[in-house]
Design brief:
This protein is mostly helical. The protein has one domain. The radius of gyration is 45 Å and the shape is rod-shaped.
Length: 116
């Protein structure tokens, strides 16, 4: 066996080992790169979701403020209704005290027609 044949036999396993090592490293790098891309995509999605959550929380706060304003307005209207009911009771008592008869709904329509 001459030296060239011996070198040929030794180079084949060496190139096989080197190729396997670099291939393995390349597969690891590809897997790591794929994981990094997935992490970046998830991170971007989480940031978008966080922005949406903040926006929705701001909207909820605005709705709560509007709701509080509406409740305050409702209370004010209820107070006015109660005041009008009290005034109506007082007027009815005055009407009864002075002996004036109440006008029935049918008569009210007739009175409206007369007024026009």
């Amino acid at each position: 066996m001459d030296i060239e044949t011996l070198i040929g036999y030794l180079i084949n396993p060496f190139t096989l080992a080197v190729g396997w090592i670099f291939g393995r490293r390349q597969r690891r790098n590809t897997a790591i790169q794929s994981l990094q891309e997935t992490i970046q995509l998830l991170s971007s999605t989480i940031q978008d979701d966080n922005q949406k959550i903040v926006s929705l929380m701001n909207e909820v706060q605005e709705v709560r403020r509007e709701n509080a304003d509406l409740k305050a307005g409702q209370k004010e209207l209820m107070d006015q209704i109660e005041a009008l009911k009290a005034e109506n009771r007082e007027l009815n008592e005055l009407i009864r005290a002075n002996g004036i008869k109440k006008v029935k709904p049918a008569m009210r329509k007739d009175l409206k027609g007369d007024a026009e």
